[in-house]
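Posting this for the archive.
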Amino acid sequence: MKENEREKEKGMIKLNFAGIGSREEMYRYLQGKLNLPESKGDNLDNIYAMLSEASGKIHIIVEGLAKSRKRLGSNLDGVLKTLRDAEAVTENLTIEVREQIEAGKEWMDNPAVVEQSCAYSRPVMVETDEKPVSHNSQEGLMYRAEGRPYVRLRYPNAMNVQLQIGDIMYPFLETEKDVWTVDLPLDAGFYYVHLYVDNCLALSPFLPVGYGFARPVNYIEIGPVPEFFQMKDVPHGDIRHEYYNSAVTGRTETCIVYVPPGYEENRDPYPVLYLQHGFGENERGWVWQGKVNHIMDNLLAREKAVPMLIVMANGMVMDETAEGESILRHNLFPEELVEDIIPFIEKKYRVKAGREFRAMAGLSMGSMQTSVTVCSHPELFAWEGLFSGFMHNFMGNNPDNSFLAVMKEERFQKEQRLFFRGMGRQDEFWEQFAEDDVFCEENKIPCVRKEYEGGHDWNVWRQCIRDFLPMLFQEKKPLP
């Protein structure tokens, strides 16, 4: 009996690409191993169709990737992707790649991947009648040998596990008893994820947890991680969590302050950037999701930015109606910033006084708050940044945009040191950005405007802050 026939009887197929030298040879090999008709041997769609429609258990072992990588390149990647796609939709098909990440995936060793992807390997204690025992439970975001990301989680007794990213729902497969996995055909980048176990929204401790959608939420960071926000071996600033009494809200509020390295040793005062998050997030967003501390650390290490404090506060200001219901009043934040936060920071920290040494920026909802604040208090801020940014305020009923009149004034335009606007080309709010473009053009408002590939998300906002920070508090005014 031939080896191929013995393998198929056991429901096992071995694919070893080590000795294959060309694309044509690879498809002839697949045709024989997978028993494809000759006319379909070089068609990935038909390989997918054959595997996804196969009956009975099939276990495919893939070997010899490293030895064939240079010769086959993207052709080999296409085959691996097809096998994984078929595995994701075929209950009795499993793919095993017996090889480690190739040398081109050094990014996997970077500590930022561990921090931001959070694929944990922890011993989990299990109670028994005699004594506690442990088993190795690898859960979280992981990578296949060929570098493809997948999520692996344990849910004993679950019947259905799904992961929602944007508008797409990705179903898990129970690949071992109580172990659920899902392959993710996603590009590198940041993604909020919503986990559903038996149709109930759940929060996994084995995936990073941030605050978004007005609640704690899981997210994933798929590598390779861009170098500009990697956690590198450079001097690191401090992240300080502060409490202050707010006369505006009548409550004790919190803010987070990034203090640059050397602050304690250097007794000089520093300029300040007041940096705001978006709707449904809070003051932690720019640190956990935005990585602004790593971005600033790396810029300072390369002497690309002026050392500064970065103050991040909660712009989701809540108020109560006469009936005792809590409502969002984001328009209260400019007042809270001016009356409470700035005086608190300038009393507690060594900062430079005067508009030349104050900047404000924000993303999405935070950009509206920035626009309102800077235009309403031009005597306080000389630097402004809007990320996925709105000059006009369109939240709430009948919003008042009279504050924008100051931007038409020649004195304001002359004295403003920087007006930065950054946005993703695929942003869902592009129509509003286009309206702001017209407003700036008609009123001859100078601004530095940058576009990025991406949508209304942290992948764009991180690039915005990376480009904005080096422009702040420089002697020369940045050119539009």
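Confidence is low (pLDDT under 50) at residues 100-104, 110-128, 132-136. The chain has three domains: 3-99, 104-222, 227-471.
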